[in-house]
Specification:
The structure is a single chain. The chain is an alpha+beta fold. The chain folds into three domains: about 90 residues, Immunoglobulin-like (Sandwich), CATH 2.60.40.3710; about 90 residues, Sandwich (Immunoglobulin-like); about 100 residues, no CATH class. It is built from five helices and 27 strands. It has a four-stranded antiparallel sheet with strand order 1-3-6-5, with no helix packed on it. It is elongated.
Amino acid sequence: MKRFYLFVGLILLLAACKPEPRTVVEIVEVLVTATAANMPTHTPTAVATILPTSLPPPTAVPTTTPSPTAVNDYTHVIRNSPATTSIDLQETIKIYFDQAMNKESVEQAIQISPPVPVTFYWGGYRELHIIIDDMLAPSTVYEFTIQKTAVSIHHAPLEKEYTFHRRTRDVVASISAPKENPSDPITVRFNAPMVESSVEAAFAITPAVEGTLTWSDFSKQLTFQPTIALPPGRPYTITLDSPITDQFDNTVTIARPRPFTSPESTVAILSNTVSIHPTDSIRLDFGRAVDRASVEEAFTLRGRTVDARGCGEGPITDYEYALAWEGDSLILREHSFLTLAFYPHPSPLPKGEGASSLPLKGEG
């Protein structure tokens, strides 16, 4: 009976609540929830999850300008040549660098004062040749400059402007006058090929001497041959007394005369060998006009007997001889001697003292 009243009470309670009708989805949710509530609970196993991550931003690297070369920040001129301060009129100038150079930048950086046309030639990348196209002016100072715009092949600039100077030599290289034989020629050597007519018009010797002029070595050497031998011990002066011109149109005036003194008195005994036959002729060349009578009076021919080794202990003996003249030369003929001694006379040879002698080995 009690169960009946409980059941009726439950029905009345439900009727009083008047629940709203549920949808199928709600009923399913209730069932699922109730089922889940009745299921045993357990802790789920942790699973590692790999999430995609973005790369971190790159670290900023300081941007520094790299060194232009692995050797130096700057390039330098090691040296130039020729090292002498005085150069020829057609000298080639060489410049050496410590790095391989950008050729075009170097050529554009070169300045020459006074200006002169040149050609550039490279021996590799570190050696520059400056070739003079025409001719440098004589007795002139030239300034060679390489500006800082010259760079190496790695763009290393010249550290500082490089400048050097060279002075060209005089147009006259040398003048050679007779030193031993008064019959020797006078030669004038030039550093450039000359306009021959301009030099011949300017050439003079004081006191005046007769002679002939000839040219050689492509108009770079003038030779004056006196017609007769110069008198001994006499002072002379060579001058180029008017402007002279080289073949590159450089005109210069030679202001410095060249003095010289003719050789003292000498006698040249001309023989091809010191071993001669007694009948051979011997020529004595005085190189100038002499007083023949005084020469013949001063001449003697003496000798002594020698053995096969050229040693002699015998007395000195005077030998017979015959003399003849050919111009200014004395010819000794018909002699038999071993030693020739010539004792000069004060008149033809005023400064000669003692004997001018030549030992000769006789044959027979």
